[in-house]
Amino acid sequence: MDILENILKTIKEDASVQEVRRGLSWTAVVSRRCGLASTMAQGGCSHEDTGGLEGNLTEMSALGLARYGLSGGMSRASLGLAAINSLIDVDPNRYSDVEGLKLVKELGKGKNISVIGHFPYLDALAREARNLWIIEKRPRAGDYPEESGTDLIPQSDIVVISSTTLINDTLPGILGLCRKGSVKMLLGPSTPLSEVLFDYGIDMLAGSVVTEKDAVLKSVSEGASFLQLKKNGGVRFVSIIRDYDDIVRRLTE
After folding, report:
1. Which of 61, 75, 169, 234 could link 41 by a cystine bridge, Cβ 3.0 to 4.6 Å?
2. What angle do CA 197, 201, 205 make, to 5 degrees?
3. In this model, does residue 106 exceed pLDDT 70?
């Protein structure tokens, strides 16, 4: 959790927690803004590692909730990340509206691409890539199992990493497998829009900004999937790129 702890250290202003929603797919915390994180838990149970404070979460500050979330297992880590995302000072007008996978599709023509996590719309990316390797803990047909990452990630020109790796604490290990010069993206609505992540070698952040809180909270409460969340509206998907020219240079060397 060192990465999240370091993001937390950059947040100087606390806020009260106005609302917490814990849906089947998404966890939402409303403080300074509405922050999202994937709902995750060990062994498929959503309450096994929650400790004793649930039921009183809106009595905490957002920083307090974030620290509480980062002190337990994955269920609490989802809470902690949503709380962090609710506090990060975000000006959506600074960011590109280009969605992450579209950006990878533009940059990844003829390249080896690893995608950590199963995302929608990967068929179009597969048509552009030299090789597209989808690496999953629970592989579907055509996916590669998690252990294959040891061989495939070092061969990849671009590595697209689900932001759920911040919740299950697998991101540092994945970054350690990436070869020098490869381009790395953190992808998904859970992604913190924090430049601290650039210090860890990540080049692109593809995350979300909630623009209509009530619509998103309704989707969260009703167990909306990623595609349903997107269809229902209230979320703007944005990307932050550390140095686009440097990325292009590295991919063309």
Report:
1. 75
2. 45
3. yes
Distances (CA, A) of 146 to 38, 151, 159, 170, 184: 19, 10, 14, 11, 18
Pairing of strands 112-116, 183-187: unpaired
pTM confidence score? 0.92
Residue environment code for 20-31, b if the CB has 16+ CB neighbours within 10 A, otherwise e: bbbbebbbbbbb
Helices of type H across the chain: 2-9, 62-69, 74-87, 100-107, 122-128, 149-152, 171-177, 213-221, 226-232, 244-252
What single DSSP character describes residue 84?
Answer: H
Residue 203's pLDDT is 98
Tokens linked to 18? 């106005």
CA distance 250 to 28: 37
How far, in whole angstroms, is CA 237 from its chain's centroid? 12
**CA 123 – CA 108 distance, rounded (Å):** 13
Nearest to 191 by CA among 205, 203, 201: 205
Task: Give the domains, in start order, of the chain with CATH numbers.
Answer: 2-92 (3.30.390.100), 93-211+233-252 (3.40.50.11590)
DSSP string, 128-153: HSSEEEEEESS--TT-EEGGGHHHHG
Give the Cα separation of 233 and 253 in Å (integer).
40
β-strand 112-116 against 131-136: which pairing, if any?
A: parallel
Of the candidates 62, 66, 89, the one whose C-alpha atom is nearest the C-alpha of residue 167 is 66
